[in-house]
């Protein structure tokens, strides 16, 4: 199944050749259906947007996306045009003649794929009739008060109608339709009920009920086989949505999901084992200069340092050159995204850094949107004070420089006692007095509407991280998405990520995890878990993820308290690294970006398409059901400069800088990069790996063995334990 018009996967350094039967894309039509086509709601938008170029390169003008019409999105993202394909043109014209409003054009993203957009409102008058069609097809009823589910029914009915019109005029071309998530699933159900000649794929990016259960702080993964699914869905008043999702799964010729951990979840929640796991990728762009991403890190780190100077004015008694910037970002799901365990680990990290009298300071950003009513006045004042001091310093510098210049022209060494006059000294004294503040630096940049009940702020109060002078861990909650037009922190998200040292995403429920994947592509180390699809993917593909800057916390096979201890060890170990060790680690992290490129991960989608064709049209396409196409996979080896034993670790484990001379001799960036490109190839298949508890890599391989013993000792020391744990109901 070789790509017709695509870039060969062998164009990626070190990736194995993959040659199987050719898929005749010129005789096929491919449709992808999703509520997030041109409509940014969540992660599915990123999946479709970043994958579009690879798919368009492969399928050319036979690739189409189907989504909802919103006027603003249409005006800003879509260029209208006439369909070239005759079957598409006829389908659009027919539906428009019957009172529907169907729009066709090119989505203005990389790859410029064709899009077909349906105006939901213009077809709402058909809702009652289409509810009857759905009931006849699968006996699922939708309550009138669930507006979202009703919109999805309209969208799905229009999709099924459109696909019928296309297949009626396809002139012998076979049609593949891939439906993303339950929002698009109604179209699949109706298409199969009407026996349309199409090959169908249903992809779930997260099960509906799974997300609800995890948000309720239930021990989800250890009780997957014990849930009464119907009862749980009914109690949450989503039973009809769950039935729509489950019907979609069982109607599809091929069922796929985005990660191995979600595949296990789907088998229990939706009662069908996924046929193919299709990991999410990104559109990876390499810089012409190998270390350009390191230069970008230095540039954007300086801008974050400017913000920190203003935010902590009057309390800036720590060295910014020895300050590390950590962050967590995403939807405000306190437990699902791991903000609870992260805050607990920060409390323990603060204790360790203070106890060991470390000169390292950690500033942690929480970029999670919440309800606010305005910027915090104290935060705005801090940035104003910083700018004022900067202007004063430049003014004095210019006067000083002019006097020095004039003295040198006269051939004199200036009298340093007279080079600054009394007015200059007065201005500088007033500037110093303006930096005095009676209060502590704020822990949030905005005024929170629900300050007293906000989970993050409530936890900060409990653990006592108030940005005191003695705290080595400082916390800043930024309850808005980042923007380059912000008066506080004028940076886009990508710029901010590049300027940080570590992204921390200890999620409990994360079907894939785009945030750590984006960090990896930018060369920024990250913390993830073995309950996220990204973490499981990296465990399978990288022999020692920690050496490559991917810290994987075990949240599946150990208690929350043990997981918190492990995260604390990772963070403390990262703080102990020298600057050179962090540079080496960033180089290694960035080299993993090939793993996340759609040019590589797109092969899983290719396999799913071929499989659905073989099931829908077995007389035209054939694939052995027990022998899916195999290819050589690869696993990044453990870097040669990382010793196999933690006790002897010098590069992989964080040590003080007195080993850097020996490090210089052992580490050669170009040689190591070349070995990674060649990599270790081992046979593997596109089929799923056996399930069960996998052997985890030694989580202590990146931490000092002495620290592991020491932190365990801290947990057993009764008096210290009280101050150290800040125990809570969950931990």
Automatic annotation (TrEMBL):
Reactions this protein catalyses: [(1->4)-alpha-D-glucosyl](n) + UDP-alpha-D-glucose = [(1->4)-alpha-D-glucosyl](n+1) + UDP + H(+)
**Compositionally biased spans, kind Low complexity:** 647-657
Q: Which domain of life is it from?
A: Eukaryota
- Cited Gene3D superfamilies: Glycogen Phosphorylase B
Compositional bias, Acidic residues, is annotated for: 658-673
Q: List, alphabetically, the InterPro entries matched.
A: Glycogen_synth
Tell me, what is an example of a GO biological process annotation in this record? glycogen biosynthetic process
Stretches the record annotates as Disordered = 622-680
Renumbered to this chain, the signal peptide range is: none
**Entry's EC annotation:** 2.4.1.11
Question: What is the protein name given in its UniProt record?
Answer: Glycogen [starch] synthase
Lineage, highest ranks first: Eukaryota, Metazoa, Chordata, Craniata, Vertebrata
């Amino acid at each position: 199944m070789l790509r017709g018009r695509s870039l060969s996967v062998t164009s990626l350094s070190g990736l194995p050749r993959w040659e199987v039967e050719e898929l005749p894309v010129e005789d096929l039509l491919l449709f992808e259906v999703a509520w997030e086509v041109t409509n940014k709601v969540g992660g599915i938008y990123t999946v479709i947007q970043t994958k579009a170029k690879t798919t368009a390169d492969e399928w050319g003008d036979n690739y189409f996306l189907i989504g909802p019409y919103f006027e603003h999105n249409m005006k800003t993202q879509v260029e209208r045009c006439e369909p070239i394909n005759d079957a598409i043109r006829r389908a659009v014209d027919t539906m428009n003649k019957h009172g529907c409003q169907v729009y066709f054009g090119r989505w203005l993203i990389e790859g410029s794929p064709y899009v077909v957009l349906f105006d939901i409102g213009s077809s709402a008058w058909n809702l009652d009739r289409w509810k009857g069609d759905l009931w006849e097809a699968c006996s699922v009823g939708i309550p009138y008060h669930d507006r979202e589910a009703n919109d999805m029914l309209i969208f799905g009915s229009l999709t099924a109608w459109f696909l019928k019109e296309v297949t009626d005029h396809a002139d012998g071309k076979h049609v593949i339709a891939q439906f993303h998530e339950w929002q698009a699933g109604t179209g699949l159900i109706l298409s199969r009920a009407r026996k349309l000649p199409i090959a169908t794929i249903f992809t779930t990016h997260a099960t509906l009920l799974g997300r609800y259960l995890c948000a309720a702080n239930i021990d989800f993964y250890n009780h997957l086989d014990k849930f009464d699914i119907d009862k749980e869905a009914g109690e949450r008043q989503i039973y009809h949505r769950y039935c729509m999702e489950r019907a979609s799964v069982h109607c599809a010729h091929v069922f796929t999901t985005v990660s191995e951990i979600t595949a296990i979840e789907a088998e229990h929640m939706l009662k069908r084992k996924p046929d193919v796991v299709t990991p999410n990728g990104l559109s990876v762009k390499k810089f012409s200069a190998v270390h350009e991403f390191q230069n970008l890190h230095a540039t954007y780190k300086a801008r974050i340092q400017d913000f920190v100077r203003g935010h902590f004015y009057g309390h800036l008694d720590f060295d910014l050159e020895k300050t590390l910037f950590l962050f967590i970002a995403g939807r405000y799901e306190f437990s699902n995204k791991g903000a609870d365990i992260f805050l607990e680990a920060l409390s323990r990290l603060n204790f360790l850094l203070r106890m060991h009298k470390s000169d390292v300071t950690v500033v942690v950003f929480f970029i999670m949107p919440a309800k606010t009513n305005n910027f915090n006045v104290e935060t705005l004042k801090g940035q104003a004070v910083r700018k004022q001091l900067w202007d004063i310093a430049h003014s004095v510098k210019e006067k000083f420089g002019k006097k020095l210049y004039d003295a040198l022209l006269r051939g004199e060494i200036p009298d340093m006692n007279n080079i600054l006059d009394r007015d200059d000294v007065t201005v500088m004294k007033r500037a110093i007095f303006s930096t005095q503040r009676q209060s502590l630096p704020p822990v949030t940049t905005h005024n929170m509407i629900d300050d007293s009940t906000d989970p993050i702020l409530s936890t900060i109060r409990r653990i006592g991280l108030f940005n005191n002078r003695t705290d080595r861990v400082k916390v800043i909650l930024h309850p808005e998405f980042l923007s380059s037009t912000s008066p506080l922190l004028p940076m886009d998200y990508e710029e901010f990520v590049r300027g940080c040292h570590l992204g921390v995403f200890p999620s409990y429920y994360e079907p894939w995890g785009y945030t750590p994947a984006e960090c990896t592509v930018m060369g920024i180390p990250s913390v993830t878990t073995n309950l996220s699809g990204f973490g499981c993917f990296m465990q399978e593909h990288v022999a020692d993820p920690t050496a490559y800057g991917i810290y994987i916390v075990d949240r599946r096979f150990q208690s929350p308290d043990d997981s918190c201890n492990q995260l604390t060890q990772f963070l403390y170990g990262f703080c102990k690294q020298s600057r050179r060790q962090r540079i080496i680690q960033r180089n290694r992290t960035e080299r993993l970006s090939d793993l996340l490129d759609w040019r590589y991960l797109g092969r899983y989608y290719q396999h799913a398409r071929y499989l659905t064709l073989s099931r829908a049209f077995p007389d035209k396409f054939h694939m052995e059901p027990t022998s899916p196409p195999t290819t050589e996979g690869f696993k990044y080896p453990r870097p040669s400069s990382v010793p196999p034993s933690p006790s002897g670790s010098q590069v992989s484990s964080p040590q003080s800088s007195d080993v850097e001379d020996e490090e210089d001799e052992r580490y050669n960036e170009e040689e190591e990069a070349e070995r990674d490109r060649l990599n270790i190839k081992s046979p593997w298949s596109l089929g799923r790996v056996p399930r069960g508890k996998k052997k985890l890599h030694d989580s202590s391989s990146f931490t000092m063995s002495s620290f592991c013993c020491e932190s365990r000792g801290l947990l057993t020391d009764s008096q210290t334990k009280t101050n150290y744990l800040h125990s809570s109901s969950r931990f």
